[in-house]
Amino acid sequence: MALKSVENSFYQEIYSMVKKHPATDNEFINRFSRGEISYEEFVNFSIEFYHFTREWVAILSILLVNTPNERDAESLTRILVSELGDADPLKRHELLYRKYLRSIGINPEELIFRKQLPTTKKWLDKMREYFSSDHFTALGAEYGLENMAIPMWDKLLPGLDRAKQKFPVLKDMDIEYFTFHRELEEHHEEEMANVLGEHIDDPVARTKFTKGATGMLDYERAFWEGLAIGK
After folding, report:
1. In 3-state terms, what secondary structure has residue 172?
2. Domains delineated in the chain
3. DSSP secondary-structure letter at 179?
């Protein structure tokens, strides 16, 4: 088989795996999308997802400083700078999420030292662990996280709209964080496709890349399932 065919096959294989992974197709996130969660579960989601949003820049920085390949580092830098709002500090993603929390009556400053759910803590701890591990495994984990994002936002956005209609207390909900993020994700996917392309002719890198993506998404699935109450 020609190398180009191998490359195309691997691109499609890992891309399809990530897009179909239960990390974004599980019982909780599907109920969320349909507006079938309780108010308590909605609050649970909002609080626990903030832990991810708040820690993500620091976690991604771990991967960047452990990245030896300069072209890989270039792509990761662009993603990191995007998370920080590019040239506009008012678009820093965590700040947008704080606006969301305040709009639904939650004070983000009170959450910083709040104990995380075990499944949330495990997910974040595993991100740090993966991003500090073998470089190709780490890049695979980041690939999985960036490429699952569009399916995730496409579940969360209709769910937020339905929650706003279902629970009067959420009538002033500010979802700029979610809509703004959704618009950026194709660019993040492109950056990680470039990273994958740097190493796609290396069979060892492909194996480790897949391992990292699959493993990271397995922990994300557990994160979502951990948000359910009374299930």
Report:
1. coil
2. 38-225 (1.20.910.10)
3. H
pLDDT tens digits, 134-161 = 999 999 999 999 999 989 999 999 999 9
pLDDT digits (tens, 9 = 90+) for 167-209: 999 999 999 999 987 777 777 888 888 888 888 889 999 999 9
Helix residue ranges, H only, the chain: 3-20, 27-34, 39-65, 70-83, 93-103, 118-131, 135-147, 149-166, 176-199, 203-225
| Tokens representing residue 90 in the block | 């008012």
Is-contact 149 185, C-beta < 8 A? yes
Instruction: Pick the closest to residue 226 from 7, 18, 15, 52 (CA basis).
Output: 52
118: Cβ–Cβ under 8 A, 6 or more apart, which residues? Answer: 226
CA distance 214 to 218: 6
Is the Cβ–Cβ distance between 224 and 22 less than 8 Å?
Answer: no
Burial string for 73-106 (b: 16+ CB within 10 Å, else e) reads bebbebbbebbebeeeeebebbebbbebbeebee
**Are 212 and 138 contacting, i.e. CB atoms less than 8 angstroms apart?**
yes
Write down the pTM of the prediction.
Answer: 0.91
- Which amino acid, residue 166? K
Place 231 in a pLDDT band, splitting at 50, 70 and 90: low
